[in-house]
Amino acid sequence: MEELTAHLKRFRTRLRIIEGWEQLQKGLWLAIAVSVGIQLLGRFLPIESLWFWTALFPVTWLAVAVCYHLSKPYSLLKTARRVDIDLSLFERLSTCLVLPEHGGLFPPALVSAQAQDALQSARAVNIKPAYPFRFNRSSWVKTAITSGVVFVLVFLPNPMDEIIAGRKAIVEEAQKQAQEIEELQGKVEEAVELDPEQRQEIERLLTELAEKLNLNPGDLDQALADLSRVEREIESYGIPNAGLQAANLKSLLEQLNSLSGSAPDPGEELASQVDKALDELLQKQEQLDASERRTLSSSLAQMAAQASQSGNMQLARSLSELSQAIQSGDQQSMENSSQRTAQAVAQTQRSLQAQSRLSEILSSLQSSSQALAQSGRLAAQGPPFPNSQGQVSGGGGTNAPILPPGTSQRQASSPQGNKPFGGEDDLDTQGNTPRQEGNFVGDELFIPGIDTDQGSTQVRPGENAAPGLSNPSLVPYDQAYYSYLNAAMQSLSQDYIPENLTNYVQQYFLLLEPQ
Amino acid sequence: MKNQNLNPDEFRSLSESIINQVKRVIVGQEDLIELTIVSLLAGGNALLEGVPGLGKTILVRTLAQAIHCQFSRIQFTPDLMPSDIVGTNLVVESGDGGRQFQFEAGPIFANLVLADEINRATPKTQSAMLEAMQEHSVTVAKVTRPLPEPFFVLATQNPLEMEGTYPLPEAQLDRFFFKIDVPYPEVGELVEIANRTTSTMTPQANPVVEASTVTDMQLLARGLPIASHVTEYAANLVKSTHPNTPNCPPEVTKYVRYGASPRAMQAVILAGKIFALLDSRFNVSYDDLRRAALPAMRHRIILNFEAQAEGITTDEVINKLLESLPVEA
What we know:
Helix content of chain B: 40-55%
Oligomer: heterodimer
Order of helices and strands of chain B: HHEHEHEEEHEEEHEHHHHEHHEHH
Shape of chain A: rod-shaped
Strand content of chain A: under 5%
Mean pLDDT of chain A: 77
CATH superfamily of the largest domain in chain B: P-loop containing nucleotide triphosphate hydrolases
Structural class of chain B: alpha/beta
Number of strands of chain B: 11
């Protein structure tokens, strides 16, 4: 029996191999056909690591088939019955194997003779010729055909590759921006100008944003929307008309210096200078006659009006009280209102400093948005083209992708035509210049239109659709802006200008306000 | 055990000797000869169906000569009485002038009995004959008398002349181990028959075994090992002849009224054992069972009216059954 068992184990091993081989022949082409299906699917859907998925099924199938055939339950009785049938041994082996289970049902002499007969049969079997490796030609032909199709599909250009590369670029860029946002968190921690609560909230927002960007699967719209939402929330902590208020403070100082006759001290803080100018003004007003007091009072009232227009109601109220106190000649009131004015100026200055910090944060976020938008556009359009040649089929407007609502950074890439990216005159770069809500400076170029096949957009080299915006500026914009604003405010206070035009000028400067 | 004196090789050798002796007289009909000897060695009785003149009587007589056994032939007719077969008590005078009953054994008291045209006798007579076949004994006047061993009945019936016959009921048919169809000889065989029977030299069979040897051979055959899965196959085979069995072939469902009885399974296995021994093997194989299926089951399956109307035979149903019941590892 032991010898027969040894023979049967040998048969079993051979049977496992042969059955595995036959299974391989029969099923390999089917597994490769699935790979063909995956390759075809990869031409309609962007599938990352398409090669991996293509190879995965046949390799997994092979591994499973091999493991299954090598480890599947294969009893000796089953082996014996299989060998009996395959080699026409007339149930010799299987009978010999099960006879001991029957006890004394059969005469021992016959059982023994049967065992000898079975053993003799098992010995006579030459296992390799008995179970040869047979080649199933039709199966191999199918395998060859399907393999050929897979190779052809693999080496043919896949339109989905660009989309996948784009997504990858976006993911990389998002992770890079997430890292920068994490660095920005450090700066926020050090920003003592901000309220602790504001700081904590901004840090939380930035942490969440960094996490979302890190987890972004390559969805540009989602990344920009996340950034935009955080931007909006941070913007909500700022003060409205900050630029106007800053300009108003400067204008106030200049006017107070002019009225008090004190000289400006650039090294000193603006609040101290205002405080000093007010002190000098109070001293000076004692020597003024009634007419001069009225003039001074009127000037202060105008300053109050300007402060009111800039939205700084506290300053406007204190200036108005000072104006009334000067006109009434109440010394105590003048001192009190002067003190309140100085406090309001100091408060405004602190607020403006905090606003400046917020602006820096927003600027960083907007830079991130810009970088992401840029990477998305590069991915969508592929490598940069040579300098613009002029015509781009615009379809009666632009086919620029419009970002979803809530995305503050909208870009218009296509209308620029074949312009090189990243250049100074790149409109998109300008279009994504950091901005504040409602300002036109640095706003995007967004030309609404319907994407049709008609029409064209003329673009000439060296020019862009918004002349002047990209010209290099020798004077910082905010400096120039405030100079003009100051002059305008002076004109408004000193000259007669109709009220409707006054409002128009104020609105104009409001729109031009820098960050 | 008696068969300890006999080994499988001797079994085969003796069987071949018997077959060769029969073949000296019977021309062709190899299946008939083999199946008849299988029935004999299995201890069963065979029903031969064939037209007259095909050598059925010669076969039994030759077989009796080959195994050196007592042979008798009973021609069944409607007026045949049971006592004509089993024997009767006769009043005889004893030496002292007295009278006594003496049992006069009938022709059934032989080793090999040819029941010729058994379907021509009345059911009562058939029943007496079949009881003797089953019990290997007869009871006359409350005295049971054993029949000589080995006891082998070879009954014949003519499938053509059915008028005035009493067809064997299913229960009686079931007692036959095999039902063997006797085919008409081929031309070559007919020529040989003519040569042998129309000359002065009539071939005779020589005795090659004793009756006791046949009994030993029967015992040896019964002791041959059979694996449980092979027995299970036989059981499935018989079970599948029943139309209400799940997974039975559609032919069975359509044409069979009653399937084979457990005796069919016994016959298939016993015959399989003989076939295995004749093939010099010490175990029964699936092929042995499949080979025995037709003669063992063809008279045990009762077809319905639809089958009779369409001319379907039990052999066709059994062949379909064998096709639908493949051997699996």
